């Protein structure tokens, strides 16, 4: 027996879209799946550590494709976003990020696509976890968001804030260079702000960047085998992003039927991030948002639900992403996004696919989000039948085991799970 060997026996094993096995077996050797299917279909060598999954659902480790790991505090330490950004040091932000990462892992999310925060050390944290020096989910990181002057992301900072070179990029030459700089920093993907947002001093309907600037970003990123995720709420922002050839539209609140058809044709993914607005509608005012702020988000939330329906009707691939950011839409509460997808028309099987195989395909990582032979040995064992009731995933007490690369981390995540007051 070597580290990373484990067998998960019994339980309802969901190996991917439309494929499930009652009384199943998942066998992981040296951190990778060697078998997943009916228990009768394979023999496990004596001495292999066993996890009993009777009465549970066994899923591939889940993927949240849109999180902000270090832009706000751990859920239990409530700090207003602007105070956190302006007054917490970068090492402090990273420590909150590590805590956020542990909360995600304890909830069964073994991979996070991190939307970037310049200079905080997310890339270093990713490498530290990959090297086995810290316990955490697998992180795929954009080193920082690409934004134009006066764009979403630049307007997070008040006008008197001293800005450094490459905090923003304007014009095609700077856009080309900033992508290359990020690739050199170790980017797994590129995040660009292609429309306004809900920050102070901006309107979500404002487009950010011209088609020429966006196309330069996409072309430069693709030459370096990096995908491009575009924050785009407004119709103009989405239209320009599609014209430029981005790989995913994040939020996509003001999508229309024509754009949805274009996304389906081009194979552009939609990452709806419903959970953030849903959380803010329910908890926003107790977390420092104004009544007006919550009302503004309500409209975007309604529109996001319409976009989601339109996208599904057109055949657009949806990938699960929450916009989790700590105090608002806390880490650990990710599965609410899946519950919302089911509330708005998806089957449980489809919803799970958005957080597994579809997410892996957007991330260009066929080794995760599935239990096929050779895949990373990331597994979550959930009490009860998740396929009959997706909301089981949202309750921390139901997460029985989280396995990462064949190692059962349940014992070391116990304290985190106990503290998940979500
Ligand atoms: Zn976001």
Give your account of this protein's structure.
With 422 residues, this protein is an alpha/beta fold. The chain has helices at residues 81-87, 90-106, 122-130, 171-185, 211-223, 235-244, 257-266, 274-283, 291-314, 336-343, 348-354, 357-362, 410-418; strands spanning 6-9, 12-16, 19-21, 24-29, 32-38, 50-52, 56-60, 62-67, 109-114, 138-141, 189-193, 227-232, 248-251, 269-271, 379-383, 399-404, 407-408. It folds into 2 domains: 6-60 and 370-418, Roll (Urease, subunit C, domain 1), CATH 2.30.40.10; 62-362, Metal-dependent hydrolases (TIM Barrel, Alpha-Beta Barrel), CATH 3.20.20. The chain has 13 helices and 17 strands. The model has no long low-confidence stretch (mean pLDDT 92). Zinc ion is lined by residues 66, 68, 115, 323.
Q: Would you identify the CATH H-level superfamily of the largest domain? A: Metal-dependent hydrolases
Mean pLDDT: 92
Count the beta strands. Answer: 17
Order of helices and strands: EEEEEEEEHHEHEHEHEHEHEHHHHHEEEH
Q: Report low-confidence residues grouped into runs of 5 or more.
A: none
Q: What's the quaternary structure here? A: single chain
Major sheet details: 6 strands, mixed
Radius of gyration over C-alpha positions, nearest whole angstrom: 21 Å
What is the strand content? Answer: 15-25%
The CATH topology assignment of the largest domain is TIM Barrel
Ligand list: zinc ion
**What strand line-up does the widest sheet have?**
3-2-7-15-16-17
Q: What is the architecture of the largest domain at the second tier of CATH?
A: Alpha-Beta Barrel
Number of separate helices: 13
CATH class of the largest domain: Alpha Beta
Count of individual domains: 2
The rounded distance between the terminal residues' Cα atoms is 38 Å
Q: What structural class do helix, strand and pairing data support?
A: alpha/beta
């Amino acid at each position: 027996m070597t580290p990373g060997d484990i067998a998960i026996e019994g339980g309802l094993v969901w190996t991917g879209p439309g494929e499930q096995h009652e009384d199943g077996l998942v066998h992981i050797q040296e951190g990778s799946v060697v078998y997943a299917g009916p228990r009768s279909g394979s023999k496990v060598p004596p001495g292999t550590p066993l996890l009993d999954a009777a009465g549970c659902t066994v899923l591939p480790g889940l993927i949240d494709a849109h999180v902000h790991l270090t832009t706000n505090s751990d859920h239990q330490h409530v700090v207003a976003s602007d105070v956190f950004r302006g007054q917490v040091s970068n090492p402090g932000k990273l420590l909150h990020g590590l805590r956020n990462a542990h909360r995600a892992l304890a909830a069964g999310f073994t991979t996070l696509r991190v939307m970037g925060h310049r200079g905080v050390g997310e890339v270093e944290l990713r490498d530290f976890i990959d090297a086995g020096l810290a316990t955490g989910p697998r992180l795929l990181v954009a080193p920082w968001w690409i934004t134009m002057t006066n764009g979403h992301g630049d307007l997070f900072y008040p006008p008197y804030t001293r800005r450094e070179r490459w905090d923003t990029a304007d014009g095609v030459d700077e856009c080309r260079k900033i992508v290359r700089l990020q690739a050199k920093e170790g980017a797994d993907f590129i995040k660009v702000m292609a429309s306004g947002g809900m920050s102070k001093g901006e309107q979500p309907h404002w487009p950010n960047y011209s088609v020429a600037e966006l196309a330069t970003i996409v072309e430069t990123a693709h030459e370096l085998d990096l995908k491009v995720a575009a924050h785009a709420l407004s119709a103009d922002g989405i239209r320009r992003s599609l014209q430029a050839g981005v790989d995913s539209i994040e939020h996509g609140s003001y999508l229309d039927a024509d754009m949805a058809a274009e996304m389906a044709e081009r194979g552009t993914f939609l990452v709806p991030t419903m959970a953030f607005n849903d959380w803010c509608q329910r908890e926003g005012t107790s977390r420092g948002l104004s009544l007006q702020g919550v009302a503004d988000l309500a409209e975007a939330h309604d529109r996001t639900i319409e976009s989601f329906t339109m996208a599904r009707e057109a055949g657009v691939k949806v990938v699960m992403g929450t916009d989790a950011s700590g105090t608002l839409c806390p880490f650990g509460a990710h599965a609410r996004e899946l519950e919302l997808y089911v509330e708005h028309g998806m089957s449980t099987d489809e919803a799970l696919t958005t957080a597994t195989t579809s997410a892996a395909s957007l991330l260009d990582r066929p080794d995760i989000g599935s239990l096929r032979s050779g895949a990373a040995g990331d597994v979550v064992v959930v009490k009860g039948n998740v396929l009959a009731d997706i909301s089981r995933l949202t309750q921390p007490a139901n997460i029985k085991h989280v396995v990462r690369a064949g190692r059962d981390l349940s014992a070391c995540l116990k304290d985190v799970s106990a503290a998940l007051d979500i």
